[in-house]
């Protein structure tokens, strides 16, 4: 299955992407993760991306399309893929179309998770990630047993530099302006699946699976 997972920052894409990846055995491709990894390695691209990420701006389309073209050419994508955080602009969606057309591939569905903005601000600003093992926590909804310490490996918990309120508000505005129009773009092609993300994680996942079963002819 070739899938896109869409939704504003903090909507729970990362968690749902992990569930989908495990259920359907397709690789999750997150442009945000790729940029953060590049920043950790200190590559030129990573440092350039980090400057933009830290202020809630999008990385330019040509750079983002370039890394996606390379990633989709890797062997593990032959059996399908789940794009998380890409495309984020109409220009990226058009670039994706041409990449897929070159390989005679097409999209099966676009999953769009929806949550009201005021809830997203609370969700984003409370996110904490273990600096050692990457486990995710939330100060309010999933607090660690000991403040600022990972329950699994006792590593220090960190807040992503783009999860501060000012940046989150900016990212939501950019999402509304540049990424939300993609819902019409994909709805016109009959690919869009809207999912209520304001419910328990397992209920969000149940709705995703049910909708995919209805919308694709492939065995799931
Ligand atoms: P995410 O992990 O998906 O929330 O992405 C974190 C940040 O990475 C975003 O706020 C952008 O700065 C950058 N980014 C991720 N994906 C894209 C994309 N498709 N286009 C442009 N910038 C992106």
Summarize the structure.
This protein is an alpha/beta fold and 220 residues long. The chain has helices at residues 13-24, 31-41, 44-54, 61-72, 90-102, 117-125, 165-179, 181-187, 201-215, and strands spanning 2-6, 28-30, 81-84, 109-114, 127-130, 136-138, 157-158, 192-196.
Could you explain the architecture of this structure?
The structure is a single chain. With 220 residues, the chain is α/β, with parallel strands linked by helices. The protein is built from nine helices and eight strands. Strands 2-3-1-4-8 form a five-stranded parallel β-sheet, with helices on both faces. A three-stranded antiparallel β-sheet has the order 6-5-7. Helix 1 crosses helix 9. The site of adenosine monophosphate (AMP) has 17 residues, from helix 2 and helix 3. The site of adenosine monophosphate has 17 residues, from helix 2 and helix 3.
What distance lies between the first and last C-alpha atoms, to the nearest angstrom? 9 Å
Highest-level CATH class of one domain: Alpha Beta
Return residue spans where pLDDT drops below 50 for at least 5 consecutive residues. none
Write down the CATH topology of one domain.
Rossmann fold
Structural class given helices, strands, pairing?
Answer: alpha/beta
What fraction strand?
5-15%
Q: How much helix, percentage-wise, in residues?
A: 40-55%
Arrangement of strands in the largest sheet: 2-3-1-4-8
CATH architecture title of one domain: 3-Layer(aba) Sandwich
Mean pLDDT: 94
Bound molecules: adenosine monophosphate
User: Helical element count?
Assistant: 9
Q: What's the β-strand tally?
A: 8
